Each structure stands twice: as C-alpha cells, then as structure tokens.
Amino acid sequence: MKNLVFVIVDDQKSMRQYIFNELRQMILDEEIPDGDVDDIFKESSGEGALKLLRKLFLPAKDNNRTAKRGIVICDLDMGNQMSGKDLFEKCSEDNILSYLEFIIMPANPTQELIGELGEAGLDNILAKSISADSLFKAVKKALRNMENKSSSMHKRAERLIRIGKYSKAMRIIKKGEEKFSGIGWSLLRTRAHLGLQEITKAEEEIKTANTQAFVSSLLVMKNLAEVHEAKGETKKAIEVLRDLSQKSPNVASRRIKLAKLLIQENDCEGAKNVLDALQKTSPAPEKILEIADLLEESGYEEEAVDLRERTLKKNLDDYVFCNALAIDLRKQGKYEMAEVCYKEIVAKHPRQSVVVYNRGINFGAWGNSKKDRGLLRKAKECFKKALELQPDSVEARKALEGIEKYLQKF
Fold it and tell me: Strands across the sheet with 37-43, in order?
C-alpha cells in the first residue's frame, strides 16, 4: 500500500500535534510500515483540508497524482467552520475523493449521534479524549477497509447510486453479493431498486434486512420510508419518519421530508410543529430557508417572513448566502420581499458587484411583471453600478444593454 497519506483536521493546534506525534510513533514502532506512508499533513479547517485533498488526489494536467490512498482524521465540530461531516460529504460527491477513508472525532458520541454519522457513512468513530490505543485501533480499521475488496466495491456502488447511475451500481452489487453479504449490501440493493423504480423488489429487500444493530435499524427505516413514499403510502411513510425523528432527531433533511408529507396530507398544524422543533436544533441557514418556504406553504406566512428576516440579519456577513436567500425569493415571484433583503445586503456589502447585479435582476423582473418603468430604471442603475465595480462583467454589460433596449421600446 504505497503512497499513503494522512491528513489531520482539527481547529485545535494541540490536538493536531498530538495525533501527528502518535502517528509518527506508530511508524517508528512499525505498527504502520514506514514504506507505506508518504506524508502526514495538518489542517486547521475543513475548507483548508478540502483544498489540500484536491491538490493531493485529483489528477493534474499530466494525469498524475502525488498520492494514491488517504486517511483523513477529522474533528466533527470546528466551530463556525466546515464540520467534519460536511467535509466527508463534499469528498463523497467526488469520484476520486470518495475513496478516502475517514476517521471522525466527536467530542460527545451519543447513541443518537453515532446513528446519524452511521447514516451518513461515517462508522469509524474516534471519541475525544483520544488515547494512543484508540487512535491505533481506528487507524488499523481504516487500513483494513482499504485492503478489503468488499469495502471498495461497496463504495463504488454507493457513489454510482448517489449520481443516479442505478443500473451500473446494480451490476457491481450483483458481483459483490456473490462474495459478500450483510446489512450494507442489502441496503445498497434497496436504494438501487428504488432508483430503478423496482418498488416491489425494494420492499422485499427491506423485509429481509437485519435490523438488530442500532445504526442498521436507522438505515433500514430510512429506506422503508422511501419505499412507502414510492408506493404512494404517505401515511405509512409519515409513521416511519416520525419514529426515525425521535430516534435520531438532528437530521434536518428528514424532518423537512416529514413536514412536506404532512402538508400533502393537509396536516398543516402537524407540519408546523415539526418545523418548529427543527428550528430548535439550530439547522444550517440553507435548511432554514426550506423551513420558511414550508411554513408559508402551510399557511403560516407571518412566521415565514419573520424567520427569513431573522436569518438574514444573523448571516449578513455572509453575502453569498444572503444573496442566495434573495434570489430564492425572486424566483418565487416575491420581488418586494427580495428587495427588502437587498437593501440590507447592499448596505452591508456596497462593493460586491454580484449583489448589486442580482438586485438589478430583481428590479427588472419586478418592473416587467408590474409594467413599471420606475422599477426598470432602478434595474438599469444597478447594472451600471455593477459594471463600475467590475468592469469586465459580461453578465452586467449584457443586462445593461438589454434593459436600455427594453426601456426604449417600453
């Protein structure tokens, strides 16, 4: 196993150095063969680690890579930075980085948290505080996974399912099931059957799955909810998702799915209760926008407006996110609400051309819908300002030329 690298990711310098020293000692003691390890890297953030991993593993122009295999030892919670789980998910979306082995380090690995991490694909968990022995066991597990053909084939099939190539995934699964078995393969088959719209086969697979282990039972229930939904059995799907939300309460996407199904069943009050509970778990800003949209869909418009305003004010330093919030409102035809957002964003970030440009797009769409020349002139002024801030902006130049021609004919 040549060209193996370790990447240690933690926002605490002392923790990074401790793990670095322990890995070096393992190499000196030949617990990890020195000839296998190319280097050990340290990063203080998930964002920095992602840049490093892309540099180390993604093909360069000459189609070579500096590393073939990697083990990422990553803190779960790094304050306001990208979390260890987020880093894992970013890597999982990439053809090459999806083959990295992850060791995740939570400070307080409760049963619920272990279940959530297991659902995401993180099952090599190293609880803080870390001992030399626990680190060694986690590293040996990662090394075994690398050497395990079952693990490699499983990852390949899982990646293909994530990108929607279900037939190719099923071919790998069928090859794997000749040699390997277990809950993981059973659940892969279920997901592939669902993707291929083979609902009956997916249901049969679920019935035969072993649900004894806690993590496995969560995964089975998640797939069972998808089977019920695919069959149009919305009430059964709701029951499973309610149970899942109690056992593993911090998965925002699950509660959002539950709220959507409750709205389908015209249980808007039930949906609101689910969304209110979700807000108490401090979900990511992107999820909060989904919550606001669903509150509005449930008939709770004032609560939705209030939630968007609070989210905007709390995240004003992040102009990219705030701009996305306003764009979302504009796409829904809520031009006036989008402009309320843009006033605050531009006041905070007056020299961000992308924000000024998108404010102009909103004025243009709004003015076109109301046939209001005044709003269209405001759009023109925004495009002119965006060009002043970024003279090489092709989009702003085209938008300005377009609005000038339109105003002449208006």
Answer: 37-43, 4-9, 69-75, 101-105
